[in-house]
UniProtKB/TrEMBL annotation:
Protein name per its UniProtKB record: TBC1 domain family member 14
Positions in coiled-coil regions: 120-162
Alphabetized UniProt keyword annotations: Coiled coil
InterPro entries, sorted: Rab-GAP-TBC_dom (IPR000195), Rab-GAP_TBC_sf (IPR035969), Rab_GAP_TBC_domain (IPR050302)
Organism expressing this protein natively: Myripristis murdjan
Length: 481
């Protein structure tokens, strides 16, 4: 007679027969408080399983060394090891500056010991899926890495070309400005963009100083502005300041403080609380208001002065600022000369219809007039409407070619977005043009500007504008061609 331990009760084997004990005996013979005895045998290695992030639960099986896992993966995937030279295709990765790491979050791990083993087919399927995911991840990261590398190379080429151009401007062009500024070579360099390091100097020379403003005159105007600020009572509200500005142009000094904080709001450079250029901008606008009390301060001036401050010293920026605003087009807009502004709009429409007849007809059909979008562009010289670096490129050519280039740039923008605009109605066109996309591509824009021809019936911009002014003096409708 011998005992045999079954699944839930004890059985007695006697003479080849098996008899089950009674239920009561089975109850007393059952080990209710027996501790679980660990099997001294080593747990068999399970089939591979999945692990996504997190920690691996405790296992009773042997733990693989990470280096060993990496080595096994390299062997399976055919990657180069110490004794395995890379293939030509694999050697492409050596050109990258880093090793893709996105696959480390998904690792093929052994299934925990407390789970049943997977069938061999399922394990093989999971292994194949894992390898496909790893391959896709590495392919995606390789593509992204190549894209970033190309962007870095393009940026390095751009910086190198800017450095070379700056050297050319400093050593060859600026010392011989009067003889070289009109040469074909310099005009080509000008179109590509003036290097930031010499931009201020080039702007000053191109704009000139017809008003003969000196640094001493700037200091006198600034001192007067500071006296006015000290004696001027603080207005009760912004509306009161604007009303005061209409009755007394010098009273618009108070509007300057309200407007500076709105200048390039995404940048802290002109912030009232600690902005490094706040005082400079305040000084230039205040000095100009006292220099030209007949014009005073007009909203939009702060953007023009801010761009000059970023490229010139305070006094030189004031000189360029005053001379820029003294140009006929800027004076017409900032003095709100309605009849002359309409003349400019009429001249713009002449070249609009000449270059973009389809879009011009669409605008006419929807009654979208130039004043809706041109006023903001001209008032701020595109410094508010375009990204700052692109606006500076527009300024480069504007300082060379004058007011004509402002309207040519407007036509270039319309040409750039004409496919989008022709599908819009009045409301959406007005919204789009008064708030252009944040990222306007520089090179495509200048390509479209270059495609604009500023001639109409063998007449240039200045001739068309002059003819329209004469028509206005004779009483002809200004907006009629």
């Amino acid at each position: 007679m011998r005992w045999h331990l079954g699944s839930g009760a004890r059985h007695l084997e006697e003479d080849g027969r098996q008899k089950k004990l009674g239920p009561l005996a089975s109850l007393f013979n059952r080990s209710l408080f027996a501790k679980k005895v660990k099997d001294s045998r080593q747990v068999e290695q399970r089939d591979p399983g999945w692990k996504l992030f997190g920690k691996t639960p405790p296992r009773e099986g042997p733990i693989k060394d990470p280096k060993r896992i990496q080595k096994e993966y390299e062997t399976k995937s055919g990657r180069a090891g110490p004794g395995n030279p890379p293939s030509p295709r694999q050697s492409v990765r050596k050109n990258l500056d880093f090793e893709p790491l996105s696959t480390t979050a998904l690792i093929l791990e052994d299934r925990p010991a407390n789970l049943p083993a997977k069938p061999a087919e399922e394990a093989q399927k999971h292994r194949q899926q894992y390898e496909e995911m790893v391959a896709q991840a590495k392919k995606r990261e390789l593509k992204d890495a190549q894209k970033r590398k190309k962007q870095l190379e393009d940026r390095c080429k751009l910086e190198e070309s800017i450095g070379t151009a700056a050297q050319t401007w400093n050593q060859e062009i600026l010392p011989n400005w009067s003889t070289m500024c009109t040469s074909r070579r310099v005009r080509d360099l000008w179109w590509q963009g003036v290097p930031p390091s010499v931009r201020g100097k080039v702007w000053s020379l191109a704009v000139g100083n017809e008003l003969n403003i000196t640094h001493e005159l700037f200091n006198i105007c600034l001192a007067r502005a500071k006296e006015k600020w000290k004696t001027m009572p603080a207005p009760a509200s912004e509306t009161e300041s604007e009303d005061a500005g209409l009755s007394d142009r010098e009273s618009s000094l108070e509007l300057i403080k309200l407007d500076i904080s709105r200048t390039f709001p995404n940048s802290a450079s002109f912030s009232r609380s600690g902005g490094p250029y706040y005082d400079m901008l305040h000084s230039i606008l205040g000095a100009y208001t006292c220099y030209r009390p007949d014009v005073g301060y007009v909203q939009g001036m702060s953007f023009i002065a801010a761009v000059l401050i970023l490229n010139l010293d305070t006094a030189d920026a004031f000189i360029a600022f005053a001379n820029l605003l003294n140009k006929p087009c800027q004076m017409a807009f900032f003095r709100v000369d309605h009849s002359l502004m309409l003349t400019y709009f009429a001249a713009f429409e002449v070249f609009f219809e000449e270059n973009l007849p389809k879009l011009f007809a669409h605008f006419k059909k929807n009654n979208l007039t130039p004043d809706i979008y041109l006023i903001d562009w001209i008032f701020t010289l595109y410094s508010k409407s375009l990204p700052l670096d692109l606006a500076c490129r527009v300024w480069d050519v504007f300082c060379r070619d004058g007011e004509e280039f402002l309207f040519r740039t407007a036509l270039g923008l319309l040409r750039l977005y004409q496919e989008v605009l022709t599908r819009m109605d009045f409301i959406h066109m007005a919204q789009f043009l008064t708030r252009l996309p944040d990222l306007v591509p520089a090179e495509p824009l200048f390509q479209h500007i270059a495609a604009i021809h500023m001639t109409s019936r063998n007449r240039k911009w200045a001739q068309v504008l002059q003819a329209l002014q004469k028509d206005q003096e004779r009483g002809s409708p200004v907006l009629k061609r």
